[in-house]
Amino acid sequence: MESAIGEHLQCPRTLTRRVPDTYTPPFPMWVGRADDALQQVVMGYLGVQFRDEDQRPAALQAMRDIVAGFDLPDGPAHHDLTHHIDNQGYENLIVVGYWKDVSSQHRWSTSTPIASWWESEERLSDGLGFFREIVAPRAEQFETLYAFQDDLPGVGAVMDGISGEINEHGYWGSMRERFPISQTDWMQASGELRVIAGDPAVGGRVVVRGHDNIALIRSGQDWADAEADERSLYLDEILPTLQSGMDFLRDNGPAVGCYSNRFVRNIDIDGNFLDLSYNIGHWASLDQLERWSESHPTHLRIFTTFFRVAAGLSKLRLYHEVSVFDAADQLYEYINCHPGTGMLRDAVTIAKH
Fold it and tell me: Among this protein's residues, is 320 annotated catalytic?
């Protein structure tokens, strides 16, 4: 059985694990594998926001324009498309791209076609909201977990490999212990979200600066190929509990340290729903994400249901990825989005004198 931490990322551990070296997990799970050429990845969440049904065609076209931009040099190695309705009643289309290195993403985002589209005055006047939430964890700053071994979604799609069965799962604290950096670092958060340009209450262009060790979780479900019994398991047992937990975080995030929570459904380029979904959760710290997951009734029900059925899954594909970031490796920018969008809600606006 392998460690979740790749050999080239292992080092003498100064922080102890929660379980003994003799621990054996209750069922098999796997993680994405990459070699030492993968130093840092970029995760770009590029959103289009709209309120009225008559804006849908323009919003879908804007989403297609973003996707078309991915075909330019240095576009992401992998992407997917999602839709969700937030608790203010706004619909959001998010294009999520993954790059294998920071330099290629920087070249792409600063290229004339991409930069000019984002900076155009039309973004302020076309009646839509736009946002980009771009984060770049180093190889030691993210972890993955899959209940399957092929066609990895999300960041796994740019890692190019899959582990054998891994040891660090099936117990509280295992998420943290799959992070290579957890061998020597508690990943403590410091600082606060700050608005450094614009005013969320006014609209227009607003930029938020993140702080060290914000945590981002993407937790996904794929029932596209599931047969009747597994579809029923997901739709009738897992989904209602999952939806309850996600709605709680969406509506009560500040009380538990969750900056933003979006439970999204995957779509195709025309906006048609696919049988895939995932949660996008930004947290003030990994500690607070752990505390909620270990103690809140909605997540405990999700966890116990998964434990009960995990060994028997064949076509229902469940996974997650969790990352933390240095303050310098985050960009949160919003154009004409409502002030409850993403990181805007909890960002502190610095008073101007």
Answer: yes
